Amino acid sequence: SDKAKFPSDFVWGAATSSYQIEGAVTEDGKGAHIWDIFTREEGRIFENHTGEIACDHYHHFKEDVKLMKEMGIQAYRFSIDWSRVLPNGFGTVNEKGIAFYNALIDELLKNDIEPYVTLYHWELPYELYKRGGWLNPQIVEWFGDYARLVAERFSDRVKNFFTLNEPQCFIGLGFLTGDHAPGVQAPLRDTFEMAHNALKAHGKAVQMLRAYGKQKLCIGYAPTASMCYPATESAQDIEAARTALFSLPADKQNWTWNVSWWSDPVFFGQYPKEGLVKYEKYLPKITDEDMKLISQPIDMYGQNIYNGQCVRMGKDGKPEFVKRYEGFPKTAIDWPVTPECLNWGPRFLYERYQTPIYITENGLSCHDVVSLDGKVHDPNRIDFLARYLGELKKAATAADIRGYFHWSLMDNFEWSKGYSERFGLIYVDYRTQQRIMKDSAYWYRDYIKNNGEI
Ligand code: GCO
């Protein structure tokens, strides 16, 4: 309805991740992680781009914080590169790496910007990978010790932490399709075991953050999914969309793309029964103790939401995906524009898991260019934002949604697509490291200022 409003304390932010922006990959004692190694291999990434320099945020962070301030951003979600603070993944601490994040955090606080720190946005230290990485059950301790270090060094000033970012992707793309680092196509059963270890590592990190936090922390988790939204507001279509959202894919090679396998254990302490049956022959040993560790209470449910599927109730009483019409709107990276996902997605997620929701990522890539007038005009991004945030506003009247982080603060290294996709509110000229606020950045600034009343 027109009366929908965001809560007055709604958090407006933007997000990035370390490898995608920092650069300085061999500087000040940083260790190598799987993306450092993977991107050096010929043919892995679009035109063999790497994150070696990226936005050189390591040296430009003050300027970047200044731009955030100018945009009126209240919160900044960034990640810590595990290998920058623990070059081997465990053991010796790299004080210069710690110093970098300390300087960034202090700069944010000085500018009244609240830091939201992600522990794992895919920078698995290469030394740990060589020891089996996610397949080695010891990763639970490694990740726990890393979380403890983060709590000890940063939680006097940082209150908000997310453990894992998008386990669906780092297992699915990293170890099933091999499109992402480390570029492995592992047997199915290995991927289930890695997933189980990752969930345990999440639980361990929550315990460590709580135990060593220097203040009462807000701890969350940030998975992703393609959302489902109903074709009409009839009770049947809504039920169909809900059912489709929480069911598990039939195609096992796609098994990681779902909500329930990754969130039921965290919130309910059990895997969905449907999956225990479907995937039975691939599963590792799962104990009650494991499930207890995985289901540590958390405070925030982060969700990276980009698009969704329209669903209606079929004649046979089963959910049915509605085919998109010809010429359906899409972004530069070819993802469909489906604003409804920001209304129905968070509603369904909140209904099931009853935990405050943060949209930890949402955004799009556009074919942005610097125009003859020296500005970057990105009407498609503004249109996308207006539509998606309008839908999110509706959800905020029905579910406990606390914040929104736009992906991304600035153009950056888009994984296998390299620099060919521009997701930023800020344009980056990679030849000069010049930053230019796009039109959408000014639009977002005004939107934030009015808490969505436009
Ligand atoms: C993530 C995302 C980001 C991407 C963004 C656009 O895992 O959080 O992959 O890192 O850059 O989603 O694809």
Automatic annotation (TrEMBL):
One of its GO terms (molecular function) is beta-galactosidase activity. It comes from the Bacteria. InterPro entries: GH, GH_1_N_CS, Glyco_hydro_1, Glyco_hydro_1_AS, Glyco_hydro_1_beta-glucosidase. The active site is at 361 (nucleophile). It catalyses: Hydrolysis of terminal, non-reducing beta-D-glucosyl residues with release of beta-D-glucose. Pfam families: Glyco_hydro_1. Its EC number is 3.2.1.21. Keywords: Carbohydrate metabolism, Cellulose degradation, Glycosidase, Hydrolase, Polysaccharide degradation. Coiled coil: none annotated. Belongs to the glycosyl hydrolase 1 family. PANTHER family: GLYCOSYL HYDROLASE, LP05116P. This is Beta-glucosidase. It comes from Blautia intestinalis. The lineage of its organism: Bacteria, Bacillati, Bacillota, Clostridia, Lachnospirales.
